Amino acid sequence: xxxxxxxxxxxxxxxxxxxxxxxxxxxxxxxxxxxxxxxxxxxxxxxxxxxxxxxxxxxxxxxxxxxxxxxxxxxxxxxxxxxxxxxxxxxxxxxxxxxxxxxxxxxxxxxxxxxxxxxxxxxxxxxxxxxxxxxxxxxxxxxxxxxxxxxxxx
Length: 154
Fold this sequence. Notes:
It is a single chain. With 154 residues, the chain is mainly α. Helix content is 40%, strand content 7%. It is built from five helices and three strands. The chain has a three-stranded mixed sheet, with no helix packed on it. The longest helix has 36 residues, at 115-150.
């Protein structure tokens, strides 16, 4: 259910560290809200995550079908998903860029170049303009909430 709830990330991080658990944040929709300086405190602990998933098509103004998973420690992700022993997977490139194996970082064996639309959006608009748009979205939502609260027929 989409509620707009933000979990107490710092507390969850503390518990995860205490019992040696991976701390993943599903920030698919809401994590970009941390770009609004007025709301940053609500996202305290986001920076402590081992991984964060984002769906940039939801609140970063990117066309649909653009998701990403960010890892704090590349080596930990690679150790989890590494397919070096799989004889049906071959790396044919020789340089680091040519030999990058997406399958060592997730469950899919191949990927389309979905990142291009994210990169182009960030490159064209920049984080500052996207953050301003998110702040405006939040202001509009707060304005709508105030109108609803005042409305006697709702």
